[in-house]
Amino acid sequence: MSSSYLTYLVFIPILGLVVPSESFQALLQNPGQGVNFYGKAQSNPPPSESKAKKAYNDLMQPDSISCCSEENADNPLCIPIKLKPDDPFYSKFNKTCINLQRTLECSCKSSRRAQPNEASAHLDESQLYGNSKEGAMKARALDGTGQLKYEATSVGCLLPRGKNPDDPFCPVGYDSVCFKGADPRINHHTIVMSHFTIFLREHNRLATELKKINPHWGEEKLFQETRKILNAEHQCMFFKDFLPILLTPRIMDAFDLTVPEGENGIEYNSSVIPGTWNEFAISSFRLHSMVRREIGSLNLRFKQTFLNPLLIREGHMTEIISGIRQIPAEQYDRYMIQDFTDFLYEQPGVPYGKDLASFNIKRGRDHGLAPYVEVVKFCSEGTVLISSFNDLYKLGLMSKSNANLLKRVYAAVEDIDMWVGMNLEEHMPGSPLGPSAVCINAKQFYFMQKGDRFYFDIVGPEAPFTSEQRKAIKQSSWARILCDNTHISQVTKNPFLLPSDDNTNVPCSEIPKIDLTLWKDEGNDTIRSPQY
């Protein structure tokens, strides 16, 4: 079941109305003609984050109309990206346009165009299970084991083989090697495929262990309890290990997002709306500038992982996961690797791809995002007002050089796109992000945590777990999941950080495990979880 994206800032630019206005677009920087605004990536890694942090973030983000053709020049569903005739890259191939169509519109009566969100607004592994009963049933083995469908191969259990009918990420001719799953992004790139595979294996591992502990459990009980535990593992490692790196422990505490120790938990707040906000999905959590060109242990560029399931089928998953844990992420800034600005989703036999930087800018306008100056005002509760380009550096938001760059690109400071402004901000102390991105992300995850009545650490009569089970779940980690589901024998305690004196590699035997015997159930086959 889909819902529409929510919006923090009630701002209705022309592109947010039902009919886009070309005259309004002309007043703003053309994304395609601003390709060089996002420079090719320089190697400026932050000191401690590993590429695994950005890869995990990706796990957390098709064109059917030829919008570049003359027949669709006036199609209201089209927002193609026009390229300059002398574009330094695309002009080599006589390419003057990149196809892009508008996000579908919700069937709701409103002057403001609202976009449907097919993904769940919760951290609930819906990318593995689907977000409906029908999707979950297709993913399940339904053989009494509580497991998900998989393909047994010489390199281990992999996702089922096959192409989804609407999969835009399976190249022509790859139907026999592509993976099939609940999420259409499953063949997006090799790192995403690796994460899907690891979580599939973890589900089936948990189901196998629970069956040993509770041999009387039937298919439905096994599946639902396994699903509930895997969701809890993901939620715990996200809020305990990943999010503090992005937001800093201080911001985690300020927004009451920190995972309490032991049996302590949090209260569910029924007044909190757990929806996904446009400003988050289309701007603040698009951390694409942090991706490095190199994969790590394999001699590959990132563009070679697009739409390429063969790397997984050939048994390179452990090498890929090991590699991204050892190399630093890039800085969150205005630089983006060429693999994203020129080669995004490059198809076999085609010497170019698409441009993610332009897509991000254009998609923000399509969704009617407020300009950057409005998000600064919102996050500062009206105390920081920007009226000129000089204010950007005088108020300490960004460097003078970045402010001057924006001045050359945009006609007015009020025109700066939200995503662009966020990427150019000075980073907050201890965070790879600037204050506006930290603000929106923290607010989104507050709603996501406090508004989820199935969040693993909820206490009270409707709590999904006992206090002892919650305490055990807090032993879970990405490190433990990697140890249990790959051929890795040593791992850092927090793989989202680079190895260091404080984050050394240790044998998997030293990484804590969840005590699943706490789920031993004497003859009870009752299901206390959402059933899909």
UniProtKB/TrEMBL annotation:
Gene Ontology BP annotations: response to oxidative stress
Listed InterPro entries: Haem_peroxidase_animal, Haem_peroxidase_sf, Haem_peroxidase_sf_animal
GO molecular function (one): heme binding
Coiled coil ranges: none
Gene3D superfamilies: Haem peroxidase domain superfamily, animal type
Signal peptide boundaries: 1-23
Binding-site list for heme b: H288
Domain of life according to the entry: Eukaryota
Keywords carried by this UniProt record: Heme, Iron, Metal-binding, Oxidoreductase, Peroxidase, Signal
Official protein name in the record: Peroxidase like protein
Source organism of the structure: Argiope bruennichi
Organism classification: Eukaryota, Metazoa, Ecdysozoa, Arthropoda, Chelicerata
